[in-house]
Amino acid sequence: MNNFDESVLTLxxxxxxAAALALVLWPGDELRPMKWFSxxxxxxxxxxxxxxxxGFDYTEAEQYQFVxxxxxxxxxxxxxxxGVDGIAVAMLALTGIAFxxxxxxxxxxxxxxxxxxxxxxxxxxxxxxxFVSLDLxxxxxxxxxxxxxxxxxxxxxxxxxxxxRFTRLKEYSAMKLVLFLVxxxxxxxxxxxxxxxxxxxxxxxxxxxxxxxxxxxxxxWVFPLLMIGFGLLGGLxxxxxxxxxxxxxxxxxxxMLHAGVLMKLGAFGIIRVGIQTMPEGAEAWAPLLLxxxxxxxxxxxxxxxxxxxxxxxIGYSSVSHMGYxxxxxxxxxxxxxxxxxxxxxxxxxxxxxMFTLAGAVYHSSHTRDIGVLSGLAKVMPVGAFFxxxxxxxxxxxxxxxxxxxxxxxxxxxxxxxPWIGALAxxxxxxxxxxxxxxxxxxxxxxxxxxxxxxxxxxxxEKLVAGTLALTLLIVGLAPFYLIxxxxxxxxxxxAVTG
Amino acid sequence: xxxxxSLLVPEYVLVGVAFVVLTVDFILxxxxxIHLSWLAAAGLVLSAMVVMVRRWDTVExxxxxxxxxxxxxxxFFVFLTTLTAVxxxxxxDYVRKHIRQPGEFYAxxxxxxxxxxxxxxAGELLTAYVALELLxxxxxxxxxxxxxxxxxxxxxxxxIVLGAFSSAILLYGISMVWGATGTTYYAGIxxxxxxxxxxxxxxxxxxxxxxxxxxxxxxxxxxFHMWAPDTYQGAPTPVxxxxxxxxxxxxxxxxxxxxxxxxxxALEEWQVLVAVLAVATMVIGNTVAIVQSNIKRMLAYSxxxxxxxxxxxxxxxxxxxxxxxxxxxxxxxAVMLHLIGYAFANLAAFATVIAVYNHIGTDExxxxxxxxxxxxxxxxxxxxxxxxxxxxxxxxxxxxxFYLFTAAAEAGLLWLAGVAMAASVVSxxxxxxxxxxxxxxxxxxxDTIPVAVSLPxxxxxxxxxxxxxxxxxxxxxxxxxxxxxxxxxxxxxxx
Lengths: 498, 495
Known about the structure:
By secondary structure, chain A is mainly alpha-helical.
């Protein structure tokens, strides 16, 4: 390992925060240089992520790589420790793609763009930080940072939704989201501190804590706290209600990051902090996670079917898709967990793509009502094409990444809980129904007169949609590299069998 | 008895500064008196420097432990005088606009500082009481300092009546402790408690409970907090800041020393009491803050909530294992760290309130609508301060709360830490509502408030320093944590 390898994660982490600081101190009001600067920073993080991916040695995936350790607060044994395993690498890849995409899509935001960019940078810094932290304090630290900018991003730049009988205000959605997530983080916080005291090593070092082997009774009461606390951000039923509201109210690029990347922090936390430190607790509680995950899949897809708002459909489909992640994790089987992580990646890209396209429709037509929108394919052929790609990936058509991921989850389920596996397949069927219906209604069919003049995707949107769609396709056709990396990371978790 | 009076040189300097400020006030022409703030601040800083030179490595007592000079005392001497100096400077513009007797105003603040350093270094109950009264009397006058303002007068009356009441309770408790143990020295009480482990006189327990209640009044712990909101709202804002930050820090210095050097052997008797007090304080402070429409009242309830967090640390000062009390040094570290972090964030908040008040003349929350547009700088400082108070990462509040709650868990009070975290989430709600007003809401069309808020350069600098401190301590706490650890080692050795 050379010097750069040791500092590459630190650099990756510092870049977005430094960019945010630079923007705070930015002289002048000219917006274009700020946007270009942010795009450059986002791309720079992508390059660093690529460096990590290419340099990751997956013959030795049982070890954390690119490790750097710095003492931070000796009194509490907190260290600024960074490192990645196969799972984190997949998540970095997701973030490395979604971040520049979000900056590009947010290019057209013109109200207080400077503050917008600052908050986006903070958010992504928090996301990168959570994925690479090997210290519980910092993992929690960055986790909270990733959640907080959401309040302002939604409350200021978001949009309210009119329902027949009431209006869901963006301020309401923003507050609901933050209070739910911070409330969930209380459970995480309690668990972290309990682990610190129980291990009695005076350290928050995650690698050390993963080796402790906690008492079974301890694991049995702490694991559910972690599962629910982190699961909340992953949209675990019945605590998912903040998620569709939040996704819908958020501006496009924030929806992309939030549904695309942020929700994955929750599932990632369950693996990294929950399953990896508490194998017995995970085994004991897996049936509950399985049950809730199954409800997620079925409930999410049925709820998506009955929505009339374009973004709410996508929001509930996220709830449903995150269900597969929970199902995969609950199998505690190599295939299932690998599938879950791949699903996290795949859903992140897919949902980012969908929100890009929904945002494009909303910005030009100023409505998201499925009942009103129709036949847009004629006026926005490019948008329709990409939406079809995202939709097919979402319903698990072979050739797209969603298929591979869900397949692995199903295989894992049939090895462990075949009945739930059958249920999950039914869920995928319902997804096909509402996705196809949505596409048929919004994009195909008669083009209403008032939509005749709608513009197609803008250049930045085309660029983003193209990249995201291409990623879906590449991972769908040649998933081997990603699967290998993830599987090597998953295989070495003590709780995971098979 | 051979008494080393030269040990008290820093205190002499401090008292001297107060008298110099009063004297110069007579000599200076009226229009120059506003600059007495510089003199007072410089004097306070000077005394802090003197104490560092004179007592850096000193561990010495006067009158058999009536006054204790150690690292803990040194830390609080420097901390409290610096705090007072900062508050003196923060009040500069406020005093120029709203206060007619700057000399007396600043001299009283310095006198209050004398009382505060006494509280931190007293090793005996009556000495601590006298020091506390010196602080309280200065504050009684300062709270009612705007004689032409009925709110300020009302605040003064409430404060003095309830303050005198709580002093009486405290004194009554001290007399009972003296009756039961025959001593008022912390060390003597500690010996008595250790010797009579398990069968304490009920007079003694009642005495301890009364002392706890009296101190509870002073720090505004629920259910003894009723005076705080009215007093905070009515007092001149710099005085409110002083009450919320400096006098609270001094009271906790007293509490820390008393509970570690005096009462630790009786941990089993008071731990539950303090824990219950902490829960009540956190819950009441943080929930009632939600419905406030005046920012000073909101900050008053929020600081009641913060006292609850600090009491969590006090309850966690030790735990009982096999009948022996094991001290938890993390807990006293955490209380002191939280006091520092709280001071930075809360002073930043109050400095913003003062700047806004100086400009638009109101403390109502509605005055903060659209502040981000009128003054991005002020709203940024306020946002950082509130985020830090809510305990969010990057800011010092996150670290100090993390420290506090870890200490609580270390003392076996994980449930208490859980309650504190939940209270912390509630607090986030009302802090976010202020943030929403500043950043999301717009200034109403008919608003007569001028759009741009201009800041005097002194306020600008002070706000900047507090802002940087709030962030810097949140990302690089090691040096301060080391200092605090050394200081708390002086009162809580071992473990």
